Amino acid sequence: MNDMFQGLSIADIDAVVRSIETLGYGVIKNGLSEAVLAKTRRFVEDRVRANHGEYLHFTGAKAVAGTLLQDLSESKNFQNVCRLIYERGVSPSPPPPRFHLVLRCLAGETGQKHAYYFHFDSYVLTALAPIIIPTEGQSGDLILFPNLRRIRRHYLTNLVDKICLDNPLTQWALRTGVKMGWLKPVRLKMEPGNIYLFWGCRTLHTNEPCDPDKIRSTALMHYADPHAHSWLRQKLGRA
Ligand SMILES: O=C(O)CCC(=O)C(=O)O
Ligand SMILES: [Fe+2]
User: Fold this and answer.
1) Per its UniProt entry, which superkingdom is the organism in (predicted)?
2) Is the distance from the beta carbon of residue 142 to the nearest atom of ligand 1 less than 6 Å?
């Protein structure tokens, strides 16, 4: 069968899960072909140019059609890899391999506002494929404080965490701590072609800025929402 993603052996999957647990992230090296990267790069460059060189993001399968997010999310091999990582790392009963897809394009002055926003993802596993990473000036590294908390079983505890984190004072303290070197996150200089994986809902993370005249673009596949059926969340109508 013609699948754009090669898949991994069980030993490779185990190594990725071990790496996520110990280093805080795992890498699938050279999992993407240059052709698939090139068409996604073109997609990003065209859209950013049309947006006068400013920040953009695309969410959902329709919005990212024609990019590697479509190819990867439809790849049976990639779906299997995520399911197996989840099974080994979290529980033997993974949800169906459906992804929340986001393509981010940091650029221009507006791009600066989308850096240093520390957060936990709402999904368990985050797979990140860098599309364009600046090679000069600030590279916009991904920074991680891995596995800080457990998966929140209840949406309410997740919400309390969010309120504690999502305010100017906490964000300022984290940003300052990182810039001054008082806090020592894991820092990833990402390379297009690789796929980076981490427990998004357990790992406090953000990206650093890049220079305003450069594009930094990342494709994100978020897998397994632990609060998909939360009554409270539905009532509050929150993401
Ligand atoms: O673009 C990145 O490097 C990370 C983005 C991220 O964490 C997110 O969108 O949830
Ligand atoms: Fe995130």
Assistant:
1) Bacteria
2) yes
- Ligand 2 center from residue 179 Cα (angstroms): 19
Ligand 1: distance of its center to the CA of 220 in Å? 7
Q: pLDDT above 90 covers what percent of the chain?
A: 79
Q: Whose CA is nearest to atom 10 of ligand 1?
A: 121
Residues 99-151 pLDDT 10s: 999 999 999 999 999 999 999 998 999 999 999 999 999 999 999 999 988 88
- Contacts for 199 with CB less than 8 Å, ≥ 6 apart: 20, 89, 124, 125, 126, 146, 147, 151
Query: Domains in the chain, start-ordered, CATH in brackets?
Result: 10-225 (2.60.120.620)
**Which of 153, 173, 152, 172 minimizes the C-alpha distance to 161?**
152
Ligand 1 proximity of 220 Cβ (cutoff 6 Å): yes
Tokens linked to 104: 């981010």
